[in-house]
Amino acid sequence: MSPSAxxxxxxxxxxxxxxxxxxxxxxxxxxxxxxEVTPPLGESAAWNTDRISWFREFHHAAAAGLDGxxxxxxxxxSCDGQLAGSVRLKRIGPGPGSAVGTMKPLEAGAGGAGAGGAGAGGAxxxxxxxxxxxxxxxxxxxxxxxxxALAVSAGASHLVAETTAxxxxxxxxxxxxxxxxxxxxxxxxxxxxxxxxIPLR
Length: 201
Prior knowledge:
Layout: E1 11-15, H1 18-31, H2 34-37, H3 49-62, E2 72-79, E3 82-91, E4 122-130, H4 139-153, E5 156-164, H5 168-176, E6 180-183, E7 193-199
Parallel strand pairs: 4-5
Antiparallel strand pairs: 1-2, 2-3, 3-4, 5-7, 6-7
């Protein structure tokens, strides 16, 4: 390793137990904006009881894995022994009983898998958020590398992720993973969406 090379952080993906969930929530409240982690809920853009309830329900539902009712699996991201954020995999398309919404697609600024098969040639969607203090250190890149391996083992042929054109960190993360990026049209209420497709085979 050359002297100028950045050290690679020790990143692990952890199953979200009740204890890990509460630590993850504490991290999100302290070190991430609510809009980076949850859909718009309640009367403000800040953390509120609706967003906190959604956060807990999301991870509880995801605990059942890709073959569970929510058709998704989430992990806490550990960096050098500290919780740094969360990453998920989700089957694309509606699944039975999937009443829980999806995690904010890809934010870079973003244990056992418990995942079932994605079907031959199938796609999985991924999303990630990191606490502010863990951004820009290669944590997202390592977490995405790990989740790509889990997607391959689940039988997926590619990963799909969405972000906005202004999220420079997320765009860089997708590019580093070899994603093909497609920019959509801006809406009246949202900035321009960017969809990344990451081939796995």
